[in-house]
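Researcher: Can you fold this with iron/sulfur cluster in place?
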Amino acid sequence: MITEIKAKSILVASKLPDTDFVINAYTGCTFGCSYCYASFMGRFNGKSIDDWGSYVFPKVNLEEVLDGELSKIKDKTKAIFLSSVTDPYQGLETKYQLTKKALELLLKHHWTGEISILTKSPLVTRDIELFKKFPNIEVGLTITSTDDSVSRILEQSAPPASLRLKALKELNQAGIKTYAFIGPLLPHFSATPEKLKDIFDSVWETGTREIYMEHLNLSPYIKVRLFEKLSNVDRAILEKFYEAGTDKYKKELEDVISNLLKSYDFRLRLNEVISHR
Ligand code: SF4
């Protein structure tokens, strides 16, 4: 269900550790990942957690609102993240081009602060020429597995991981600064480190040298959606998902990661695996 809406604000002050503002051009995300922490967003538009993935509200007045907001900000060196609760390059971006319009406005306002983009979509490569005009921009692709069949279960309608890796390579070849967001970390990596190594190898081959890693967020509202999806997976894997919130499990997985990192020259963003309480 697609419903165009008019937003009161687009540029929102952020509590995330390494950004000052976030821009979300859409409410909702058709990629519908089972582990998505943004599934609560629908409550502002009469949608339930279970509806996540089935609706999008494009903010069609983005240009007018964002232009006004950017005009009022004197300090153009602040960091901006696109996007925190939606995918900025989900399929509807082809039609609405709201992410592209936001970037064009940032250029118009001579933004010099860091612009950080995170997506699961190869559509991001459409804007390579636009990215080249920014003095300080980075583009991240989320990679949770190198196995497209795993992506199909947990990231129902997102582009397969193989296309995301291809997009990373294309961005690197174009000279754009990139990173890979390896998160959420799937719990079975603690028992099968070779699957995590496959991700490291695949990301390394794209030319990306910076990674950002995050543990699975098992807040109660996320668990309900996620575990429904997992009802058909192998029991051994399912048990790992149940363990994923424990400190013991996190420590085991972090040991696997630090051992693996010794064999690569990746820079681990924030020097730690991000964890949720
Ligand atoms: S792509 Fe990102 S925002 Fe969209 S459903 Fe997946 S995790 Fe959530």
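Model: Folded with iron/sulfur cluster in place. The radius of gyration is 18 Å.
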